[in-house]
Amino acid sequence: MQSHLILDWKGEKIKSMVHNKIKYTAVPVEAENASSKKTFCAYLASHLTKKNISAFVCILILSTAFVLVACIGGNFQSKVCTNNKSMQFTPKPQNRLHYPKNLKIAHSKRRLPHCIIIGVRKGGTRALLQFLKIHPDVQVSPDEIHFFDNNENYSKGVEWYRRRMPQSFEEQITIEKSPNYFVDWNTPSRVKLMNSSIKLLLIVKDPFYRAVSDYAQIKENRIDKNMEMEEFEDLAIDSMTGNVRINYKAINRSLYYIHTKRWLKYFPLEQIHIVDGDNLVLHPFEELEKVETFLGLRHYIQEDHFVFDRKKGFYCINRENGAHKCLNRTKGRPHPKIDPDVVDQLNEFFEPYNQKFFKLVNKTFQWPKAVGKRSIKKKN
Ligand code: A3P
Question: Quick one: pLDDT at residue 64?
Answer without folding.
Answer: 63
